[in-house]
Amino acid sequence: MNEITLETKIADLLNNYEGMKEILIGINPKFEKLNNPILRRTLARVAGVKQAAIVGGMDPVDLLNQLREAVGQKPLTLDTQSHDSSPKEEETPKWIEQIPYAIIDANALLEYDKNPLEEINKLLKKLNGGDSIRLLSDFRPEPLIEAFEKKGYMVYSMEESEDLFVTYIRK
Question: Quick one: CA dihedral 3, 4, 6, 10, positive or negative?
Answer without folding.
Answer: positive
